[in-house]
DNA sequence: GAAAAAGGGGTATAAAACTTCCCCCTTATT
DNA sequence: AATAAGGGGGAAGTTTTATACCCCTTTTTC
């Protein structure tokens, strides 16, 4: 079996020791460095050019490991990065998979799983693990759909007037015409008129359809940020 | 081991026979139907409610299997779909992963791999296979980046006035201020003023930067379609 | 180095758009 | 029956926009 050099990146001594013990048992794996921060990791990666980097995410800050991975992809593209973390939340996973990582493994994984991850990474045969796959599939579908459908919606929203945008925000929050009128301190008739204009621009016959296409594409957050 | 019902969908007799042979060897797997088209597949899925559907992609047309999978997700959401195809091109894979499939397996896979795919799908533990993972990682990063950058640019473009949009279109075509003034039959000073306003909204110091971010995200076509 | 283009700031005015309100009405929804 | 949703016409006042002119500096181009 091919000789592999490994860099361990984790800010906790105990975690580094556990990994060192696991790797130490295998003669074809050798640790060429240990880093306690993202910064150190980037420097050591350039210096040692390891085959594999085992990278924790949360160090100096919540995403230090992801940023380090991203920098290493640029400065030391030959090193394969395995994210080895306790975090299995969507944010961590999606951020990680936006950089070119080989694998994403939970720290509680068995010795065998960690070694398998290293071997797979080295031979470019890392699958995406089941617990990641389901989340990634969903998110992938969402962003792909977003990309495909945004063009039309974009054109419509570009033509909305400032107060129409504000009313649209309120509609997305589920407010009725009456509530929106109260909120904006204007007559109900005014709101009715403007919603009518919004529907025309979207070419829809009722507000439900408009809200649906906005929710379907997760555009609410985006619309909510529009400020005139 | 739990009893699993399986639906085979493929327009080629020989392929269906091979799968039937593989499945027939295992007592806990039973074939409850065979379909030769996407349409048949949807009907049989509703009728038989199979645990697993082995689905070919290219049947009536190039993407019949993907469409069928999408419909089955809606009408028979309990059935797990395994795409089993000869196509490993990006289009097929990305389309497949936009619908909720359990796995994507190449037809030349060994008997063992196919059975493993079925077992994993049944127990909700399908990883994304290495040959798919690398492509999916790349595409995921691309569309995620698109979505992130789009949000900011979107907010800016939503605040542009009609004539600012027109001038932006001209700028993207590489026209100078003088040319745009001539094109719109207005004074040069007017255009200078409006471009100044555009730069402020984009928070950029020159038009090159604005054009660059528009081109970087392939937004020109989209902006060009905006009509007030 | 001169000329042209790009970019920033101020001011002003007519036209356009927006906001608001009123009236009327029909159709869903409850 | 009552309320909400949706469509259409009209009209007032206000705000923005589009346009133009002035001034200036910096950058690019020839």
Automatic annotation (TrEMBL), chains A, B:
It comes from the Bacteria. The keyword DNA-binding applies. The modification 4-aspartylphosphate is found at residue 56. Residues 153-218 form the HTH luxR-type domain. Gene3D superfamilies: 3.40.50.2300. Keywords: DNA-binding, Phosphoprotein, Transcription, Transcription regulation. The keyword Phosphoprotein applies. InterPro entries: CheY-like_superfamily, NreC/VraR/RcsB-like_REC, Sig_transdc_resp-reg_C-effctor, Sig_transdc_resp-reg_receiver, Tscrpt_reg_LuxR_C, WalR-like. It is found in: Cytoplasm. CDD domains: LuxR_C_like (cd06170), REC_NarL-like (cd17535). Residues 5-122 form the Response regulatory domain. This is Response regulator transcription factor.
């Amino acid at each position: 079996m091919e000789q592999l050099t490994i860099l361990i990146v984790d800010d906790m001594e105990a975690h580094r020791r556990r990994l060192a013990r696991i790797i130490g048992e295998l003669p074809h794996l050798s640790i060429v460095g240990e880093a306690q921060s993202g910064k150190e990791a980037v420097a050591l990666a350039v210096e040692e050019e390891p085959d594999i980097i085992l990278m924790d995410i949360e160090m100096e800050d919540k995403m230090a490991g992801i940023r380090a991975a991203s920098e290493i992809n640029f400065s030391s593209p030959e090193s394969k990065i395995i994210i080895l973390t306790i975090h299995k939340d969507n944010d961590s996973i999606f951020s990680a998979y936006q950089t070119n990582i080989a694998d994403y493994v939970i720290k509680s994984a068995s010795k065998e799983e960690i070694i398998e991850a290293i071997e797979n990474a080295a031979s470019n045969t890392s699958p995406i693990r089941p617990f990641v796959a389901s989340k990634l599939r969903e998110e992938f579908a969402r962003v792909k759909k977003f990309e495909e459908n945004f063009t039309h919606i974009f054109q419509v929203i570009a033509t909305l007037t400032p107060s129409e945008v504000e009313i649209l925000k309120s509609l997305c929050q589920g407010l009725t015409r009456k509530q929106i009128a109260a909120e904006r301190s204007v007559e109900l008739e005014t709101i009715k008129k403007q919603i009518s204009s919004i529907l025309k621009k979207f070419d829809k016959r009722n507000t439900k359809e408009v809200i649906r296409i906005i929710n379907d594409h997760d555009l609410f957050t985006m619309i909510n940020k529009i400020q005139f």
